[in-house]
Write a structure and sequence with these properties.
The protein is mainly α and about 220 residues long. It is built from ten helices and no strands.
Length: about 220
């Protein structure tokens, strides 16, 4: 149950302002919401199953402590990625199948190498549990993209994007910092090193925020 809930929560956070959430918003302006959701589900089910198996397979070659450290570091990177935001690069216009297959194919390829897919790999490696992680990440994608479809289109301009973005990023970073603290020896991770690391993380967040994609640009892309 822990693996399921953690996977659900992390993917919801990863999707906030993510390219695939923007893609769901864009498709919702062209197709029925139910069609978009079924397409998202089909694409995510296949894509994240591949990610879960990759994450589980990694542990056969790499010691668990190193995997835990890599997962913790990746959560910090996902937090910075969330602050920066994403833009669409024509993914909603690349394919011309029926509505369902257009959404499914676009989502499948948009997810390849995306932070939600990478988060799924990290979660599978961390929890070593295929089905709960797969179910959790799929549910998280549906929840986040339903939010994007329903709230993002109808009420998006009333929601403080910065609050959602920074809140999601903070949770990611907190888990990353905690993971590093738990898996690095105290001889290396001295109080001075921890303070310096936190200062560097804050500075990185500030620098990334300066090049973040404005909400108006993302909304303009969807409207076009």
């Amino acid at each position: 149950m822990t693996a399921f809930l953690a996977s659900l929560a992390f993917v919801v956070l990863a999707e906030m302002g993510d390219k695939t959430q923007l893609l769901a918003m864009a498709f919702a302006t062209r197709f029925r919401a139910s069609t978009v959701m079924w397409g998202v589900f089909a694409a995510t089910a296949v894509n994240h199953m591949l990610a879960v198996f990759v994450g589980s397979y990694i542990t056969k070659f790499i010691p668990m402590q190193q995997i835990q450290l890599a997962a913790a570091a990746s959560f910090i990177l996902f937090g910075l990625w969330t602050i920066r935001g994403d833009t669409l690069e024509g993914e909603d216009k690349k394919y011309s199948f029926s509505p369902f297959w257009t959404v499914a194919v676009a989502f499948f390829f948009a997810e390849m190498g995306d932070k939600t897919q990478l988060a799924t790999v990290a979660l599978a490696a961390k929890f070593q549990s295929v089905l709960p992680v797969w179910l959790g990440t799929n549910t998280g994608m549906l929840v986040a993209d339903a939010f994007g479809i329903v709230v993002g289109i109808v009420l998006g301009r009333r929601i403080p994007e910065r609050f959602v973005k920074w809140g999601s990023a903070a949770v990611f970073m907190a888990f990353g910092v905690f993971g590093i603290h738990e898996n690095v020896s105290e001889r290396i991770l001295t109080p001075m090193v921890e303070v310096a690391g936190l200062a560097a993380l804050v500075a990185a967040g500030y620098l990334v925020a300066r090049v973040t994609v404005p909400q108006t640009q993302a909304v303009r892309e969807i409207e076009e």
